[in-house]
Each structure stands twice: as C-alpha cells, then as structure tokens.
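User: Please write out a complete single-protein record containing the residue sequence and its fold in token form, without commentary.

AI:
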Amino acid sequence: MIGKISGRVDYKSDDHVLIDVRGVGYIVYCSDRTLMGLPGAGEAVALFTDLVVREDLLQLYGFPTLVEKEWHRLLMSVQGVGAKASLAILGALGPDGVSRAIALGDWSAVKAAKGIGPKTAQRVVNELKDKAAVIMAMTGHSAQVTEDPSALIEPAPVPKPRTMPAQKPNASAQAEALSALGNLGYAPSEAAGAVAHAAADEPEADTAALIRAALRLLAPKG
C-alpha cells in the first residue's frame, strides 16, 4: 500500500498530477479542489494517497490531509460510489462540507457534486450518518502533509520538526463535545447533528458551551 507521495510536480492535468519522486513518476488522481491547491511545475509537493487495486487497474488517489483521505475511503464504502464519485463530492464540498452535510442529513448538498444523483446522495447520508462520527472528530486534528523540499533531493541528516497545521477555533471543542454526548448515550448521528448546529451558531464556543447548546437542541420538545 502506498500511503504517501513526496516529490516534485512534473505537470498537472484536469484530473491528475504527475509527481516525480527521485526520477520515478507517479500519476496521482485528485479532486478539482486539491488540484487547484497544488504548487506549480518543479515545486515540492506531498500528498496522502489511497491505492485502488482492480484486476486491470492500479490507480493512486491523492489528498492534502489525512481526514480527507479517510472521507474518501468511507464514501467509497457506499453502494454506487466509486473513486470518481468520491472525488467529485470532496471536490464540491471539501471534508468539512461533507461532515456538515452528513451530520445535518443534508443530502441536497451532496447532490450538488458533479455526477451525483438524488438517490446516491440520499444513500450517502443514510449509510454514513452512524459511521462518520470518528472522522468528524478528526477535523482540526488531522495531519497535513508538509515536506522540506531539500529532503526530496538529499536525505536530511537531522529531521526538521514538522509544522503543526492551524486548527479551527473550536475544532477540538467539537470533537470533545461529540465524545461527551456519546458517553451520555446519544447516538452518533444525533450527537453529530446537534454539535454541528451548535458550532454553526457559536463558532467560538468552548467545549462546555457546545455541550450545553447541543443538549438544549437534543432536549425533548413540548
């Protein structure tokens, strides 16, 4: 399994990038969103990758963050969603948008992706609503590939410390609130939906505030 590619951009096409890794070129398929964020030819790049193996095909798919790669793998577990459809969804919504759509049951947001019909969009939301909590909790904590360009040519004698990716204001609070609601016995899907609503209303809220707001949303009405 090839889990990460680090090298230099040779060229970018409309659906893939060719990465030169010390003289060996790897074709890596990416979403439109990922391709737009890649550097130009000759510049250093690193991507998390997922290798799809079929009888007549070996294809690498690339992602800038680990959480996006995990969303790709989870999306492909849905019947009728292959690698191309998964990239279309991630390209249209991004990993955060996919999290929100599934947490809120918003299949129309998923349907906005190119080539995704209403039945497939509904299937994505219905099948993943109870499976996505772990990946949602990764948001804000997932590794982002960072590389020292010189290391692509000569191994560095002493590894440089990696730069930690910037976290969203309450990403960790959302993960902690989601865990707390799970410990209180709430189902992953309803807990994720309540936390997503609370976070949207109070973007700077801490863990305690998110839990209180989510519990109010989950309280029986009437």
Observations:
- The two ends are 53 Å apart (CA to CA).
